[in-house]
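Problem 3 from the worked examples.
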Amino acid sequence: MKVNDYMKKLYQDMQLRGYTEHTQEVYGRVVGKFLNFSGKSIEVLNEHDVRNYVLHLMNSDLSKSSINTYQAAVRFFFGVTLNRSMNYLQMPRLNEDQTLPEILSREEMVRLLERCENSKHRAMFSLAYGSGLRVSEICALRIQDIDSKQMRIFIRGSKGNKDRYTILSRQCLVFLRDYWRNFRPNHPDGLLFPGSNNISHITDKAINQALKKWLTAAGISKNISMHSLRHGFATHLLEQTLSVPLTALVTMGVEIQDIFAAHITSYMESHPLNLVQRKAVQNIVDCRTAALGAHIDTCDNCGYTKISYNSCRNRHCPKCQTVAKEKWIDKQRQHLLDIPYFHVVFTVPSELNPAFLSHQNALYSLLFQAASETILELCADRKYLGAMPGITAVLHTWGQNLHFHPHIHMIVTGGGLTREGKWRNSKKHFFLPVRVLSAKFRGKFLALLKAQFPTLNPSLLDHCYRQKWVVYCKPPFDSAGKVISYLGRYTHRVAISNDRLLSLKDGKVTFRWRDYAHKNQMKLMTLDAEEFIRRFLLHILPSGFRKIRHYGLFASRDKGKRLALCRRLTNSSQPAPMLSVTAL
């Protein structure tokens, strides 16, 4: 028989025994290497040749587990395909080192996901770490396998050709929707992660290469693979189970609604609420319960019906922001230009917090006015840009620990329209000097504050004038698509989302928070339920107050004409038609 005939018989023997395609490929490759190493015809091969090959492997860089795999392949070839007896005692299986796998810490995992700018890669990493999927399972995942209703993922034909379900965390679902919105995969077989040719699925090699790239970008030097992220899922789940209920870990446990339902009555006995706070609290407690009624969904094809409770749609309810956010982002996509964008943040000293809480409507508006005028006036100066940029501004009033911390997030175009109707780009990696921004913003805000509140304590104003105000500008985005995904993180946020809540026990609430003062460390904080409610209610906005505003090129007046001109001057592509938000 020729070598090809023996190899054909090898594959047939493996198929008859139900070996997977991956195992067949590995065994075939190993046997080919063995035959090349021996340099003999198959008819005269014996166990001494196998022994010499194993000794050769032990002197190579292969791990013990890989050498054992090579041995198993050659043994199968001798014992089954060639039907020859061997003294297996002469070639014992190597004892593999029982070392713990190297994994990322929680902080490193957060850093990796935050640094990863590709929403497709971020979604795949989160599936391995957040749901424990193998890289081969991620490659074969289909769109219909994601069940966002039951918050679970269906894994078909996994190891051992078995099907199973695994958990789907809320954060992982956010990353998946972000990926869907940016890429919208359209594979004929419904693959969630098709390859670059859109014919087959993405390969495990491509995913691991992407992981190495983003690990380097995040400054992580550990030898980490996609399987390491899966180990991290199991390790961190086990560690947290010691102190946190498993239901909280899979984000199917405590919610803001539960905290309010259990403790708002006792809180209101000693803390009076205003009308807007009362409405928000009542809506959150009633959201998706029988109190708001229900509706019936019917399938047009099979007639299956499902009864669902109605949502409250209050903008402070963490359950009701996803659809509103997706619709808003899809609408803003129509206004994006193919240019760099900068992220600028304006903050005020904490000494002004009492004034903000006493005059929320007026001071939040002053904050918007001072921040927007600072950007527009500096950009109008030819020393910096000499053009009018586009600005989208979002108000946040909280920090990670729920303390009151009013600040403005701005997404600003990296360029603008001049008075002559021409486009002028800003510097590629530099927008405006931070010190100039801070000084001008401080002077403008305090001048506006003094004019509107002339009786304000002069010593407070003097103290604020002497302070350095924090204004910072983050590096520009590479593409308009990344601006969209980034905007989604800020526009429809509430003070704290349900996925950060870990437990409600004995009148105390435990949640995760990131300590920016200590290198973004992820920590746990436990508060009395009433203190948690007090902090949450600080961030209920006045009725009718617009927390998202547009300026410059994005201002409402003549917006369509300006953007059409800017799109032509910057060679930006025409926006895609708006789509209904039904993916995943």
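Problem 4, a separate protein:
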Amino acid sequence: MSAFPVAAASEPASDDGRCALAAASPDAVRRSAVTRFDASWVGRLTGNEMRVLSKISDYIYTSGRCFAADGTIAAHLGLSRGGVNRILAGLEDRELNGEGMVRSVFHPRTGTMERWVKHPAPDALAVCVSGYSRDQLPGTRFAVYCYLSLRQMLPDPTPIRRIAADCSLSEATARDAVADLVASGWLTRYGAAGCAFRYTVHPAPVAGIAAYLADPTPTSSVTGPPHESVTSAPPGSVIQTGPLDQALVIRQEVVVGGCSRVAATSVPRDAGTREPDRAPAARPGRGRGSAGRTDVNPGRRPWPAGGRLPQDVQQALHPVAALWSRVRPGARAVVVAAARSELNRISVWSGTEHASEVLRERLGQRLENQERSARVTDPVGWLLRRGLPQRVECPRPSCDGGIRLDTGGDCETCRMRVADRRSVRRILAAEIAAERPDADRDERRDLFERRLQDWTGQRARWRAAALQLRHNDDLRRAEVLAERRARERVAAAARQAVACEGCGAANSCGLCPVCSGRRVAKEAIVACVDHAIAGNADLDNPAEIVEWARRTRAELRDRMLSARAPGAHYLIATASDQLVAQHAADEFRVAALRILGRHPAADREADQAREACLRAAHHYPDRRAAVTAADNAGACARRRAAEYLLAERLQRVEVYRRGGPTAAVQPAPTVTGQS
């Protein structure tokens, strides 16, 4: 059973003949006003995929077959031709309910592609929305719009979490999409603030929709009038907006004219009109019954309300605000992305804080060269191809058409390039004059053109050869890199396959983590014992060496046992013993240096350094500064002497450990791994 209800079938009413379309056949209504597709698409396809498939379905409804090119579909939906091509290529390999979503047949004789999309059955649950909403809303918002067109029939509210889960979106994305649809007039939501809302979809943006929201502080609102699709109805008719779900089984109401070509929208047969105090006021428009054209967007703001356009992008696009107001909502995201890309490219050399100013100056100059915006017939194409891109004629990043964008002056590189080209022309002209002094002007011009063409072709071949060499070098480097990475992977696999030399565990890289921790702890214990002996014991007395070794091992054992948690796993015990031993090694080294710093040899070094500094007291501004410098020099000498004595005594301890004259020092046993 589906989660969405299916209304009972009934015949559409003609409303006393005041609307000719209301009395027309269901297919005529669908062809002119409504796009209808399978409800199972929602949640399984993205918004743009549903838009493309439904557009193909509408073509099939109209003529029985769809021969529309990708560019034609893209122009209607505000997408790029490549985007439509990628969407259709991905949908041809996908199946829904055991059948392919799109079938394509290429006709080589005419060079056209015929596509076919399966239509839902008349009694099947289907999404039924206006074609204007499909053409105007971007992908994510159209997906949410279609989902809410199904949910609006249910009495239960629709929380954002459910919208995100059923539409395969994140909660943040679903929340932003709903807020934008409500602010733009595509949705009406009812409910108390802080609770889940119920939604009603509209076939076109409704004027003043934010004025009667249940939430008195919506996330964003439209300050100017919306699209010119809500118009004044003929005298005696009732203006209503309502759900388009199951267009074949609900009656038609009047919404006349408008740029969306939505001739009729629909509400359930048992639904009454919206209360007068909650209904938005009808606005005059370009209806069929109007005497003349009325501007439905007086004082329209070129920028979207709510601050959704980034601040730096808005500053950069300020010179082309008139063009921006003519950009279709579905294409605005593409323009903003292109502007963001140019800002990132400019910020590399100008800095982030100056990027928007540089791009604003570029757009202003380009628009002035175009003789202002009235000469631009395609605002999106002009912005993407002429206004925003940098004219790549110079290798200097800050150069745009021979002008430095950072300084405003002429580009030196472009000037030198122009000088080089002129010098080539002078050289060729001089060669022709020397070779053919008797030639007339026309003959010299022909020779010059051929020579210049040959030189240009030769230069192009040189550049092509250089590019080929660089490409070959890149391929060789890629091959060398691939081989090196392959060898590294083989070597890493071989190292990983080596068993642990301590416990014999397989695939341990020669030493498992447990044995590695034990080894590190044992080395730290040995370092602790060596520093304790070197700092405290008489190295000529074997008995004292043995006593200090025993005392140090006992102290470390007590520290390790006290640091372990009761009943800890042996891996945790090993890690704890390792950390205790490493910290103890540092402590024993500091203690040994402190003891050896009081050695007579260290005292002599400190006294000599202090006396030498005091003998040069006349180099200091006063006696106090000289004494301070002498004390510092003595401390440094004492520290160096202590380090030298410690290194010397550690060497003697190492000799004893290896079985020297007394062999008094034995490797200290470790207690790691014992619980």
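Solution to problem 4. The chain has 20 helices and twelve strands. The longest strand covers residues 34-38.
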